[in-house]
Amino acid sequence: MVLRSHKCRLCKLVGDLGEEAPEGGFKTALLSVRQGDAASSSSPLALPTQREVSAAGPSSGAQVLPSTGSVTHRRYTAGSQSHGSAEASQDEASPEALLEQALDVKRCELMQFLLRKYRMKELFTRAEMLSYVIREYKGHFHEIFSKVLNCLQVALGIDLRVVDPNQHCYMLETALGLTYDGMQDHHQSMPKTSFLIMVLGLIFSKGNCAPEEELWESLSVMEVYDGREHHLYGEPRKLLTEEWVREGYIEYRQVPHSDPARYEFLWGPRAHAETTKMRVLKHLAKFNQVNPRSFSSLYDEALRDENERAQAGEASQASGDARA
Question: Measured at the alpha carbon of residue 302, what is the angle toward residues 255 and 172, in degrees to the nearest 5?
């Protein structure tokens, strides 16, 4: 299995937006991504209103909601005068550009709102999201909400649980049945569940026992490197060889009779108890944007594991009934 680098712009903002920040912090972070350089906090991006988007008027052959890749990355500031070329001025005034910029900011605001709810373990409703975050962009709620949820799941390993479908009441929880999120400081640190799932998946894909050097090589595709601080996951070696070993998710051991000493990673007892190979495989397939059956040999092994677990559960139930 080969991991792909996840290029979602929203996911790249997670580390910054997870902190308690003022309103302008969202816009500054978003602007820095669009311009490709550091943005000054004293020059926040002004969020165009729905009225301003509509006032810009339709453009020839334009879609109502274009794909992210077709949107201009130029700065938009309400009421500012264009100093660029006539073409740049036209791009800045296009309704598609203004709308996509506005929706980007709303996605970032919703991301922070949901991370706060996750940290506080609070329920939230659709009405809250519409009232406190989405506001006049209610017509784009589904598109905004679905993209943010996808980012939470893929980048952070957080799933949505429907508590009350009639009241549209929800709860966020760690993915795949895992009980670990790695958040030591609930105000600053970010959930590391998705990274743990990636590592478990790589171990599974390498015959359930991953040589250390091969694991780091695979993780480098995600821009996670041995000994280098990561903006979401912190220092990865400490996670893999200390924290996750202590938590029981990873076994880190020396390869028998290796000289010089080499090391390998295996699933720990807590990983086996809390999740399954099939769940991990499906998560990684979503990360790679493929069908889990495309990893045919891994899928077959995961399916055998599911059947063995089911049979063990039935045997345990039968034994319990017999004793009763």
Answer: 100
pTM: 0.70
- CA 160 – CA 117 distance, rounded (Å): 12
Q: Which of 10, 316, 322 is nearest to 154 (CA)?
A: 10
Tokens of 299: 């899928």
- The continuous run of DSSP H or E covering 173 comes out as strand 169-174
Identity of residue 288: N
Q: Average pLDDT for consecutive 10-residue bins of the chain (324 residues)?
A: 56 48 36 36 38 45 31 35 48 75 88 90 94 91 91 88 94 92 67 91 94 93 88 88 96 93 96 95 86 92 92 73 66
Burial of residue 196, with CB atoms counted within 10 A of its CB: 0-12 exposed, 13-18 middle, 19 or more buried:
buried
Phi-psi region of 177 (alpha: psi -120 to 50; beta: other; left: phi over 0): left
Backbone conformation region of residue 103, classed left if phi is above 0, alpha if psi is from -120 to 50, else beta: alpha
Instruction: Give SS3 for 170.
Output: strand
Residue 237: which of 269, 209, 265, 259 has the closest Cα? 265
260 preceded by a cis bond (ω within 30 of 0): yes
Phi, psi of 266 (to 5 degrees): -135, 165
**Please, what CATH class does the domain formed by 193-315 belong to?**
mainly alpha
The CA distance from 70 to 181, in Å, is 35
